[in-house]
Amino acid sequence: MTRTIPRLRARTLAVDAPGDLLTRVPDEVDPREVAAWLREGDGLVGWGRVAEITTTGPDRFGEAEAWWTEVRAAAEVEDEVRLPGTGLVTFGSFTFSPDSQDASVLTIPRIVIGRRDGLSWVTQVVAGDEPWPVEHPAELLGRTNADIAVLDPLTESEGSVGADAWPGVVAAAVRRIGRGEVDKVVLARDVRVRHREGRAVRIAPVLERLQSRYAATWTFAVAGLVGATPEMLVRLQGGRVRSRVLAGTIRRPNGIPAHDTAVPGAGDRAHPMDPRLRLVSSTKDLDEHAFAVRSVAEALAPHCSDLMVPDAPYVLELPDVYHLASDLTGTMHSEATSLRLAAALHPSAAVCGTPTEAAAAVIGELEGMDRGRYAGPVGWMDGSGDGDWGIALRCGELADDRHSMRIFAGGGIVAASDPAAELAETEVKLTAMRHALGLADA
Ligand SMILES: C=C(O[C@@H]1C=C(C(=O)O)C=C[C@H]1O)C(=O)O
């Protein structure tokens, strides 16, 4: 297919501390045109859409990458800051399955405000001879969204497979594991949410709540997909590669004070009933984790020298759950962009299963829904190919109508999985979005 390649001009200027980036997003922008990638207040927030490509099918990553290669080659870029994320930047989100009815997308916002290591900037992007959206970036930073703390009135209803039916789906997966069809399969469910008055759901307030509660995650929005993921599929920056693999989950009970950072195994500070201790000594969770780490290590190995794979996971603490986590690092020796690496890593065993193809087939047969962009790579990339790609978890996808949304959660099923416990795990994982949307107190 031939695609027109826009001739873009991008200009990045340094600015003074811009405050909370999310409060700069005007309420009147189309919520599907808000883009964000934030961690502890740093990162990128953009809006408007100057260019975009949507792709589908098995070559959805390759087609998007080819488009970006041409767009960045044709672009005229002025960049006085020169950091990862300055100059021309694209945000992307890809479907989990090549068979999804939904489109994958790479989108380029007109305005991006960024902050990193104490430096801040504004990038404006226009097509052809269009004028710059603002004469001076200070015009953008003077505006504050007064309604950032006001949530839209939303209501929730059952998704494709109701909560009551979920244990039966999990039990069917356990039987298939017992028959030796797969070792592990990740199954997910959705819940529907909609605006009570049929109006568009505003994205910035949702991001604001996610960011303030889930500091250890990457808060994102790309073309209506919004969430806070704890899982980094791949980060490529200056030739260094990183990946954070999660698999193995236990509910975090109320009552363990946040300041208690006792690590299981760290002597007598860890109580024997501490769920973290149960997690690091659970063969079921350790097996599930090992599958996921192996799948990422195998996909990264061809691109990296000195790939470091930890021998044992640590416990990542989120407000609602603990996860087994492993951070892999390596040095790139191939020319691949961060998106190419994300495509090679997707789908990891953390969101699909093992063996990959058999697990994907079981998902297609048992899940009863199209995952859309849930559990697919989501992130951003700059003109050098550096970027961050997380796995779209703890998220919701805003429909084209802008007022309804599906929120998602899943979990890894292995031979020892208990169907009722798996339902409970999805409920705990849904807390992140329910809380951010004002549907749960948490
Ligand atoms: C599938 C999800 O999470 C994934 C599954 C996990 C598990 O089964 O323990 C843990 C983290 C994620 O890799 C989700 O949040 O929807």
The major β-sheet equals: 13 strands, mixed
Please tally the helical runs, counting DSSP H or I stretches of 4 or more residues: 9
What portion of the residues fall into strands of 2 or more residues? 25-35%
Q: Report the structural category.
A: alpha+beta
Round the Cα radius of gyration to an integer and report it: 21 Å
The average pLDDT value, as a whole number, equals 93
* Inertia-based shape: globular
Text of the CATH class: Alpha Beta
Instruction: Specify the CATH architecture.
Output: 4-Layer Sandwich
Overall number of strands:
23
Enumerate the distinct ligands.
ligand ISJ
The rounded distance between the terminal residues' Cα atoms is 48 Å
What is the subunit organization of this protein? Answer: single chain
